[in-house]
Design goal:
By secondary structure, the protein is an alpha/beta fold. The chain is built from eleven helices and ten strands. It has two domains: about 180 residues, NAD(P)-binding Rossmann-like Domain (Rossmann fold, 3-Layer(aba) Sandwich), CATH 3.40.50; about 100 residues, N-(1-d-carboxylethyl)-l-norvaline Dehydrogenase, domain 2. The structure holds acetoacetyl-coenzyme A. The site of acetoacetyl-coenzyme A has 15 residues, from α2 and α9.
Length: about 300
């Protein structure tokens, strides 16, 4: 069965980006959120991103209108019942993900593929919540989704080759470069990225250098587009905290152990760009200022 209709569960930073790239590739895309205000917020972000592409001549104003017409916001899970592929982009909580997949499993046709954008939970666990474990797969995107070329396609011990191949081809159809990975927590990118980010937080804790100089060091010394602390604010301190907790629970090695500073920032609501403060203060978003964290 050809993929024509796509469902996206969640319209936050990642969900809206994923919905945008699906609609841009011509798929009719249903985006489900719990509150209409969250749909409006996510769609406003899509509008801004598409406008940027129009300004840069990457798409025409007509194409932008066509892309927008492919996006349908909804608060009902039932609206996704005719989708050929559903991508969940909800919080990293296995219980919530499993409840959604379990519900959709009962109302979607047999051919519907369930994909998860999880970055650290295992796909096999989600597959077990459905009666179609062969059709459950990982599809992990990177922030900002409209710009980042990579998508990780994850085959669990229960995913069929047919589902994997179809999802891999779908990733390509979005204009992304898919890579194939096993269903280990963190897949390829977070397996390597999370210890690096944790190392940068430990460097702040230990007073190795200032926030700005740690970032400058990695940008100018290694050619990274963003320093690790800017990247942490970009990904979200709360998100990184959750990922580190899940990966530590899985591997039980110190490289994934959550540094006390990460936990404190998470608890203090210093979640990075999304909350206005993290390692930097974004009161003036164009001019972030390093935070005084009392270290
Ligand atoms: N849509 C459209 N345009 C966008 C955009 C979006 N969503 N986001 C940024 N842009 C535009 C900017 O507005 C800017 O436009 P102008 O040139 O007109 O000003 C342009 O893209 C370039 O952006 P910047 O000037 O901010 O700077 P940049 O050249 O550094 O590019 C970047 C931005 C692509 C984000 C780059 O900094 C980068 O690659 N950063 C690293 C991101 C990264 O590592 N992401 C992965 C995080 S890990 C993850 O997501 C997975 C996980 O599980 C945790």
């Amino acid at each position: 069965m050809e993929i024509k209709k796509v469902g996206v569960l969640g319209c936050g930073l990642m969900g809206s980006g994923i919905a945008q790239v699906c609609a841009s590739a011509g798929y009719t895309t249903y985006v489900r959120e719990i509150d209409p205000k969250l749909i409006d917020k996510g769609f406003a972000g899509i509008e801004k991103s598409l406008e940027k592409f129009v300004e840069k001549g990457k798409i025409t104003a007509q194409q932008k209108t066509e892309i927008r017409s492919k996006l349908i916001g909804t608060t009902s899970l039932d609206s996704l019942k005719d989708c050929d592929l559903i991508i969940e982009v909800v919080v990293e909580d296995i219980k919530i993900k499993n409840e959604m997949f379990s519900y959709l499993d009962k109302i979607c046709p047999e051919h519907t593929i369930f994909a998860s954008n999880t970055s650290s939970l295992t796909i096999a666990e989600m597959a077990a919540a459905t009666s179609r474990p062969d059709k459950v797969v990982g599809l992990h995107f990177f922030n900002p989704v409209p710009l980042m070329k990579l998508v990780e396609v994850v085959r669990s011990i229960r995913t069929s080759k047919e589902t994997f191949d179809k999802t891999f081809a779908f990733g390509k159809s979005l204009g992304k470069e898919p890579i194939a990975t096993k269903d280990n927590s963190g897949f390829v990118v977070n397996l390597l990225l999370v210890p690096y980010l944790i190392g940068a937080i430990r460097a702040v804790e230990n007073g190795v250098a200032s926030i700005e100089d740690i970032d400058k060091g990695m940008m100018l010394g290694c050619g990274y587009p963003m320093g690790p602390l800017t990247l942490l604010d970009f990904v979200g301190i709360d998100t990184t905290y959750k990922i580190a907790e899940i990966m530590f629970a899985e591997y039980k090695t110190t490289e994934y152990a959550c540094p006390p500073l990460l936990k404190k920032m998470h608890l203090a609501g210093l979640h990075g760009r999304k909350s206005g403060k993290g390692f930097y203060d974004y009161t003036d978003p164009k001019n972030p200022v390093p935070m005084d964290l009392g270290i």
